[in-house]
Amino acid sequence: MNESCVTVGIVGGSGYGGGELLRLLLKHPHTEVVQVTSRSKLGEFVYQTHPNLRKMTQLKFTSPDQLQPVDVLFLALPHGQAQKRIESYAEVGRKIIDLSGDFRLRDAAFYQSWYGAEHAAPDWLSRFVYGLPELHRDEIRTASYISGVGCNATSTNLALLPYVRDGLIDMSFMPIAEIKVGSSESGAEGNAGSLHAERSNVVRTFSAFGHRHTAEVIQELGLPRVRLTMTAVDIVRGSTATVHLKVKEGVKVKDCWKAYRSFASENPFIRVVREQRGIYRVPDPKILAGSNFADIGFELEEETGMALGICAIDNLMKGASGSAVQCLNLMMGWDEMTGLDFPGLHPA
Questions:
Q1: Predicted model pTM
Q2: What is the C-alpha to C-alpha distance for residues 255 and 154, in angstroms, rounded to an integer?
Q3: Cα–Cα distance between 333 and 240 in angstroms, integer?
Q4: Residue 181 and residue 152 in contact, taking contact as beta carbons nearer than 8 Å
Q5: Neighbours of 78 (CB within 10 A)
Q6: CATH number of the CATH domain containing 145
Q7: What residues contact residue 181 under an 8 Å CB cut-off, 6+ apart?
Q8: Do 167 and 189 fall within a single domain?
Q9: Which helix (H) or strand (E) holds 245?
Q10: Which string of b and e fits 42-66 if b means at least 16 CB within 10 Å?
Q11: Does the annotation mark 151 as catalytic?
């Protein structure tokens, strides 16, 4: 499929995820946004909630009960809601991209163990393709239903993927991802459909074990054991995963370079950052704000085999709406980077 222009609807457009989708799709050369829904903001101009969109659109929020048929329907709802009405959404949208966690996991029992509730539409889980192009590019091209990605799962997956692809990890040591996150995660991950107040001073919170994004890493990388920990830091956008792991005996720095460079060369949004000089010598989310790029890096202590995999992303972009639009491009047969080539800001 390679249609020059498609109609798009966004269900749940008042949250951070919906706002990012609007910002991207309103300027996308092949999409026409025809409807954005919100019960809480019904009848208001979308720019009253997303002020960066002022003079870019005159769209108003409409009722989700009055959805119009569209070519592609984006769901940016709080976790647990899309699965309850997926049948009706499928009647409206020829293709669906869901940003929530409802269809990320392929097994209903696995979903229940991590989300603490039975899945309302277990038969639909197998119909969705996990929406990380670096893992499922070919499947996404032919899919009709795409799941969103967890931002912390994405930073962890991309930090580890070069090691995993090249078979470098020694699983006698469980990989541990320590993830620094920004305040916008409250709107993007905790409740994709709500707009949370932006705070200048983030309350520093620490989540030691059991974050539900762990399930995506286990599923997508096939690792029997992995642990994710989160710490909130004083930024608005960003998810940076520093993964501690052990490599197999005999693995050298040159092997890691080969793995990371090969991975970056095959994926247009992956950039390797491991510099000896310069301002940013390791991945840093500060210069990725508004960008769909993911900066990855590594460190290896050859004597002990202890290693790091590092990945920085904008959690609202590569960790949510940016990846969703990247999937849209693949589904429609467009260039993968269409509407997504903004490199980030510097200085920031």
A1: 0.93
A2: 23
A3: 31
A4: yes
A5: 16
A6: 3.40.50.720
A7: 151, 152, 230, 231, 232, 233, 238, 239, 315
A8: yes
A9: strand 239-246
A10: eeeebbebbeebeeebebbbbebee
A11: yes
- Give, in order, the Cα–Cα distances in Å from 164 to each of 219, 222, 224, 300: 13, 9, 12, 15
Judge whether 337 lies within some domain: no
Note the pLDDT of residue 194.
36
What are the tokens at 8?
């798009």
Structural domain including 137 reads 6-149+318-332
What is the structure's pLDDT at 191? 44
Q: Which residue has the higher pLDDT, 337 or 209?
A: 337
- Sheet of 270-272, strands arranged across: 206-207, 227-232, 176-181, 239-246, 306-313, 294-301, 270-272
pLDDT for residue 193 is more than 60: no
Query: Which of the residues 151, 256, 311, 327 is marked catalytic?
Result: 151
Residue 120, both tokens: 């309302």
The single-letter DSSP state of residue 39 is: S
Token pair 């995963």 in the structure block, residue: 241
State yes or no: pLDDT of 40 exceeds 90.
yes
